[in-house]
Structure to design on (211 residues):
């Protein structure tokens, strides 16, 4: 699912840093579980992000990397090779969208490993959440992620897109059976992400964060 794409649309946001360069958004597919449902939700999400001219998309699919859970200040050659698949995309991003399932009232270990291997790459950037699951729609995973990202000096977007009983919401071709409410939620979330993305990028262009 690795890709970089420049979407075309009329829904661009004004640039607060004096330029018109679109925001680079890293969409993180957080599950690497066998038989995962994540790619279906990811394609739904990416279709909506691609409609906007104010975003350029990088996809970070954690099924395509194998980050170790044992952290190191001097990673092995194998760990460095896995980091090389994801770190440049995180560093280049102006904003993030984390797509997560809910496993046992929380988020996957693959996502925690990605978060913990990085620090500066997250700092002073906004992160939005799209969650899926059973009755809770993945919202308990999102609530666990918010304080983790706060520790890393990110700004978490208030509005979340959540799919309750996700498997029943999409048909066999991956299309949402009744997309109007989800589409409206996605637009609101993406508008907020764009606002914070422009605001934080503009502020950092004037004064580096933490200075």
């Amino acid at each position: 699912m690795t890709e970089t794409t420049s979407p075309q649309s009329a829904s661009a946001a004004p640039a607060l840093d004096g330029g018109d360069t679109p925001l680079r958004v890293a969409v993180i597919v957080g599950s690497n579980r066998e038989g995962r449902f994540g790619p279906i939700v990811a394609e739904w999400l990416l279709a909506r992000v691609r409609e906007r001219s104010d975003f350029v998309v990088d996809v970070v699919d954690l099924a395509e990397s194998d980050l170790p859970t044992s952290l190191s200040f001097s990673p092995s050659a194998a760990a460095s090779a896995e980091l090389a698949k994801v770190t440049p995309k995180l560093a280049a991003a102006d904003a993030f969208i984390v797509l997560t399932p809910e496993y046992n009232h929380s988020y996957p270990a693959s996502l925690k490993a990605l978060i913990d291997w990085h620090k500066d790459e997250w700092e002073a950037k906004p992160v939005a959440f799209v969650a899926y699951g059973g009755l809770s729609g993945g919202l308990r995973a999102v609530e666990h992620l918010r304080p983790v990202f706060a520790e890393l000096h990110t700004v978490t977007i208030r509005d979340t897109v959540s799919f309750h009983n996700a498997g029943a919401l999409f048909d066999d071709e991956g299309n949402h059976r009744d997309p109007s409410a989800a589409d409206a939620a996605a637009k609101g979330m993406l508008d907020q992400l764009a606002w914070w993305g422009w605001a934080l990028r503009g502020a950092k262009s004037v004064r580096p964060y933490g200075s």
